[in-house]
């Protein structure tokens, strides 16, 4: 059982980077002024759009194209942390898997880290990749170590470019599920993700939690990007952004990196006017791990509403099971809180298991700060499960995510959660 670490909380909060004024060092200011022009921005929001739906913000990059570009550009290495892999012949994802295999045959070093527990239900694609020379696969036994799973979904290419987001390595995640991710081109930030990957990769080779805890305290050979040492990025139109990644759980993360839960709480605590949250599930009632109440994020949301912040939340209809439905209603009754759930129409192909759902995990605060993550908003995803996220301050990404959110909020699939009605959770498989 993992207990909350106050020292790590204080470190994760750092200097209050996200929502207070940021004082940059002269060297950082110089790098921001003289950053080289690039064909693509350092930071891109990436959206997966379910076919035959009204989703899809114009001008936003799509998942398959970004994954193919990143893998195709790899010259030295590709590291992928994936909950699982599920391919389907003829799908858009099949082209991504083929590109991955082609890089192995071209001599690029490829490492794939997957969850051990979930692998038993998704063996075929991983077995295929294990048989390719140049691809090394390891299984991380998170359930045995902390009681969780490896739920992260990120990719690091050549220690220079990162993709992180809600998209599983699943054919459905490209054109049957609504997903949000981000592509970030920055060597130091990529090294930071690489440090998290290397840590879990070594633990997968020798699964021993006490040894992992000892290893986590060792200093890294570079200055990682953290909440109190963020990186400067350039977005669309050359806009200057500040960003840092965060990771869960603390017990399977190098100590020098930022812990995710306290960083998210601080983002909510510092909001002043508006919070927009889109996530598949949200609950303070612990369903996985020790039974009880998850107070940190719940309290932050209630405090935000109490001080006048407008809190708008979109969840998936998969969140309508009990006791989650009752929890969501306990939020919805509060002044300044509005909750909607989405019901996507069926695919023209007919019913598809584990698809046609709102799977994004992001938040926008005050039209200036964003969070894009890989975990749902429940205790286990931050405290015993491996997840990752990116926090970014800047008006441009906040505007894009707000447009995506408002398209969904005002669209035909979103329905207000009425506290005096009972809803049946839909079939998902």
Observed structural traits:
429 residues; 9-stranded mixed sheet; alpha/beta; Endonuclease, Chain A; 8-stranded mixed sheet; globular; 19 strands; disordered N terminus
How would you sum up the global shape? globular
- Counting structural domains, the number is 1
Strand count: 19
CATH class: Alpha Beta
> Largest beta sheet: what is the strand line-up?
11-12-18-17-16-13-14-15-19
Outline the low-pLDDT stretches: 1-38
* Mean pLDDT rating: 92
Number of helices: 15
The description of the largest β-sheet is:
9 strands, mixed
Oligomer: single chain
Distance between the termini: 31 Å
CATH fold call: Endonuclease, Chain A
SS-based class: alpha/beta
Helix content: 25-40%
Name of the CATH architecture: 2-Layer Sandwich
Rounded to an integer in angstroms, the radius of gyration calculated over CA atoms is 20 Å
Structural features, described:
α1 packs across α11 (260-269), α3 (63-73) runs parallel beside α4 (92-105) and α11 (260-269) packs parallel to α12. The chain is an alpha/beta fold and 429 residues long. The strands form three sheets. A nine-stranded mixed β-sheet has the order 11-12-18-17-16-13-14-15-19, with helices on both faces. Strands 2-1-10-8-7-3-5-6 form an eight-stranded mixed β-sheet, with helices on both faces. The protein has 15 helices and 19 strands. It has a single domain, classed as Endonuclease Chain A (Endonuclease, Chain A, 2-Layer Sandwich), CATH 3.30.870.10. β13, α12 and β14 form a beta-alpha-beta unit. It is globular.
């Amino acid at each position: 059982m993992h207990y909350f670490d106050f020292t790590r909380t204080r470190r994760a909060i750092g200097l209050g980077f996200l929502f207070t004024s940021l004082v940059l060092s002269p060297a950082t200011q110089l790098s921001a002024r003289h950053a080289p022009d690039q064909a693509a921005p350092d930071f891109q929001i990436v959206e997966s759009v379910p076919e035959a739906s009204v989703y899809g913000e114009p001008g936003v990059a799509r998942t398959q194209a970004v994954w193919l570009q990143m893998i195709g550009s790899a010259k030295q290495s590709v590291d992928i942390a994936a909950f699982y892999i599920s391919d389907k012949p003829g799908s858009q994802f099949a082209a991504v898997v083929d590109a991955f295999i082609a890089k192995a045959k071209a001599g690029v070093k490829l490492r794939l880290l997957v969850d051990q527990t979930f692998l038993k239900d998704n063996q075929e694609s991983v077995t295929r990749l294990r048989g390719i020379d140049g691809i090394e696969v390891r299984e991380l036994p998170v359930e045995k170590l902390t009681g969780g799973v490896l739920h992260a979904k990120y990719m690091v290419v050549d220690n220079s470019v990162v993709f992180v987001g809600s998209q599983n390595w699943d054919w459905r995640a490209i054109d049957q599920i609504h997903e949000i991710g981000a592509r970030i081109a920055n060597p130091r930030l990529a090294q930071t993700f690489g440090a998290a990957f290397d840590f879990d990769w070594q633990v997968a080779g020798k699964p021993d939690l006490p040894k992992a805890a000892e290893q986590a305290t060792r200093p890294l050979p570079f200055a990682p990007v953290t909440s109190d040492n963020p990186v400067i990025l350039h977005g669309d139109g050359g806009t200057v952004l500040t960003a840092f990644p965060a990771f869960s759980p603390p017990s399977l993360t190098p100590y020098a990196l930022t812990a995710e839960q306290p960083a998210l709480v601080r983002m909510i605590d510092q909001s002043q006017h508006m919070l927009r949250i889109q996530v598949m599930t949200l609950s303070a009632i612990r369903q996985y791990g020790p039974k009880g109440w998850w107070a940190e994020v719940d309290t932050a949301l209630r405090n935000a509403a109490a001080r006048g912040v407008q809190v708008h939340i979109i969840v998936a209809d998969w969140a309508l099971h009990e006791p989650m439905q009752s929890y969501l209603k306990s939020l919805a009754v509060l002044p300044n809180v509005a909750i909607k759930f989405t019901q996507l129409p069926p695919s023209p192909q007919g019913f598809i298991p584990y698809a046609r759902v709102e799977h994004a995990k992001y938040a926008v605060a005050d039209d200036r700060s964003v969070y894009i993550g890989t975990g749902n908003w429940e205790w286990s995803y931050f405290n015993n499960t491996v997840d990752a996220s990116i926090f970014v301050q800047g008006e441009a990404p906040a505007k894009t995510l707000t447009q995506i959110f408002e398209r969904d909020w005002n669209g035909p699939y979103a329905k207000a959660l009425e506290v005096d009605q009972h809803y049946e959770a839909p079939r998902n498989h």
